[in-house]
Design a protein that fits this description.
Layout: H1 2-11, E1 14-21, H2 28-43, E2 48-56, H3 69-79, E3 86-88, H4 101-117, E4 143-150, H5 151-155, H6 165-175, E5 177-180, H7 187-193, H8 195-199, E6 204-207, H9 217-225, H10 236-245, H11 268-280, H12 287-306, H13 320-324, E7 326-330, E8 339-343, H14 344-348, H15 350-367
Parallel strand pairs: 1-2, 1-4, 2-3, 4-5, 5-6
Antiparallel strand pairs: 7-8
The structure holds adenosine-5'-triphosphate (ATP) and beta-nicotinamide ribose monophosphate.
Adenosine-5'-triphosphate (ATP) binds near residues 22, 27, 30 and 216.
C-alpha cells in the first residue's frame, strides 16, 4: 500500500516556489511561507514540491530600509542553514538593474526547463547555480514555478504604477500564485475586485496561515533602531550578523555612537570597562536592567565563543589617526590578564557614555 502511495506521489505534477522580496532582514515568516505552502500542496496530494527559491530584490529597488544586497544575501544564507530544500538565488541582485518579478520568474523557469530537458551534465556550461533544486532530472516532466507571497504583496498589485497589468496577467496565467494570508489583508475580496485575477482564479492558491505571526522586516528594523530586543523574532545567526555589522543603525545600551560596533573587538575586558562606566550612572536596578544585561551577555558570549583566540587580546585601531591616539590600559580581567586598548576618543568619551547612559536610564524610567 505504501509503495502504491509513493508511486502515486511520483506521478504528481512537480512545482517549485519562488518568493521575491526585500528580505531586509529575512524573518522566520519568510521561510515559514515555504513550509506552509509545501504542506498545502503535498498533504492534499496535488503536487510534488521539488524546491523553494528566495530571490532578494536588486539594490536599486531603493525601498526604505533596504540593506546592501551583499548583507541581505549573507543574512538569507545564514537563515537558510537549517533548511534542506529552500535555496537562495543571487541572480536578481547581480543583474545590472532592478528586474521586474515577471522576468525573475521567467529566468528561473527557463533555466529549470533547459536543465531538465538537456541530456546530461555535459550539456551544462559552468557550475550549476546554487538555487537549482536537487534531482530535477529524475523525471522529464516540466516543473511549474509559482510565485509565493504574502497577501500584502498580492494587494500591492493595486498600487498605481507599481505593477503593469500585462505583468500581473503573465504571472497568474503562466506561473500561478500561492498566497499566504496575512493580518489586515482580504485576498478573497481583492481577487474578486480584480478582473485579471478573477479570470485566472484557478491559478491562484490561497492558503490560510492558521499560526499567524505578524513579524515583518520593517518591524524588526524599527525595534533594532530603538535599541530594543529582537531576539526570537529573527534567526540567531541573522541577529548575530546584524550585531556584528551594525546594520539598521542598531543601538545598544553598551555600544555608543563613539564606538561603532563594526570597529569593536568583542573583548570581555572592553565590555567590563563599559559596564563600569555605565554603572557609575546607575540608580537602583530595575527589571529592565536585567533584560539589558542579558542582551549584552548574548552578544559577547556568542561572539567570544566564536572568536576564542581574540578574547584576551588587544583592541585594534581602525585608522592611523586612531592608532596614534590609542592609550594602553592594563586591565586584570582573568586568565592571561588582558591588555585592553582603549582609544583616546572613547576614553575621553567616558563622560559622554555616562551622560548617554543617564539619558537612556531616564528615558526608560519615563517609559515605565
Ligand atoms: N508575517 C508574514 N506573513 C505572511 N507573509 C509575509 C510575512 N512577512 C513577510 N511576508 C511575505 O514575504 C515576502 C517578502 O517580503 P518582504 O521582505 O518584501 O516584506 P516584509 O517582511 O513584509 O518587509 P517590510 O516590512 O520591509 O515591508 C512578501 O511576499 C511578504 O508578503
Ligand atoms: N512590477 C513588478 O514586477 C514589481 C513591482 C513592485 C514590487 N515588485 C517586487 O516585489 C517584491 C516585494 O516588494 P515590496 O517589499 O515593495 O512589497 C520585490 O522583490 C520587488 O522587486 C515587483
Amino acid at each position: 500500500m505504501s509503495a502504491f502511495i509513493e508511486e502515486t506521489k511520483c506521478l504528481l505534477p512537480r512545482i517549485a516556489f519562488l518568493a521575491c522580496g526585500c528580505f531586509s532582514p529575512p524573518t522566520p515568516m519568510h521561510l515559514r511561507m515555504f513550509e506552509i505552502a509545501r504542506d498545502h500542496f503535498e498533504m492534499n496530494e496535488m503536487h510534488k514540491v521539488v524546491g523553494g527559491i528566495i530571490s532578494p530584490t536588486h539594490d536599486s529597488y531603493g525601498k526604505k530600509g533596504l540593506a546592501p544586497s551583499a548583507d541581505r544575501l549573507a543574512m538569507v544564507k545564514l537563515a537558510l542553514q537549517s533548511s534542506t530544500w529552500i535555496r537562495l538565488s543571487d541572480w536578481e541582485v547581480n543583474h545590472p538593474q532592478w528586474v521586474r518579478t515577471r522576468s525573475v520568474l521567467q529566468y528561473h523557469q527557463n533555466y529549470m526547463n533547459n536543465y531538465v530537458n538537456s541530456p546530461g551534465d555535459k550539456e551544462q556550461s559552468g557550475p550549476l547555480p546554487g538555487w537549482l533544486p536537487y534531482n530535477l532530472r529524475e523525471r522529464k516532466d516540466p516543473i511549474q514555478l509559482r510565485l509565493l507571497c504574502g497577501a500584502d504583496l498580492l494587494e500591492s498589485f493595486a498600487k498605481p504604477g507599481l505593477w503593469a497589468d500585462e505583468d500581473i496577467e503573465d504571472i497568474v496565467a503562466n506561473h500561478g500564485l500561492v498566497v499566504i494570508t496575512r493580518f489586515g489583508s482580504n485576498p478573497e475580496r481583492f481577487i474578486f475586485e480584480s478582473d485579471i485575477l478573477t479570470k485566472y482564479q484557478r491559478n491562484i492558491t490561497l492558503i490560510t496561515n492558521w499560526v499567524p505571526n505578524e513579524v515583518s522586516s520593517s518591524l524588526v528594523r524599527r525595534l533594532l533602531n530603538r535599541g530594543q530586543s529582537v531576539k526570537y523574532l529573527l534567526d540567531d545567526l541573522v541577529l548575530e550578523y546584524i550585531k556584528r555589522t551594525g546594520l539598521y543603525n542598531m543601538k545598544s545600551k553598551y555600544i555608543t555612537d563613539t564606538v561603532q560596533p563594526n570597529r569593536l573587538l568583542f573583548n570581555r575586558a572592553y565590555m567590563e570597562n563599559i559596564k563600569n562606566a555605565t554603572s557609575l550612572a546607575q540608580s537602583p536596578p530595575t527589571d529592565d536592567d536585567d533584560e539589558g544585561d542579558e542582551q549584552h551577555m548574548d552578544e559577547t558570549d556568542s561572539l567570544l565563543k566564536r572568536q576564542a583566540p581574540r578574547v584576551f587580546c588587544c583592541g585594534e585601531a581602525s585608522s592611523p589617526v586612531q592608532a596614534r591616539a590609542t592609550k594602553l590600559m592594563l586591565n586584570r580581567s582573568g586568565p592571561g590578564q588582558a591588555v585592553q586598548v582603549i582609544t583616546v576618543e572613547s576614553a575621553m568619551g567616558t563622560d559622554k557614555i555616562e551622560s548617554q547612559a543617564k539619558k537612556q536610564k531616564i528615558a526608560q524610567v519615563q517609559q515605565l
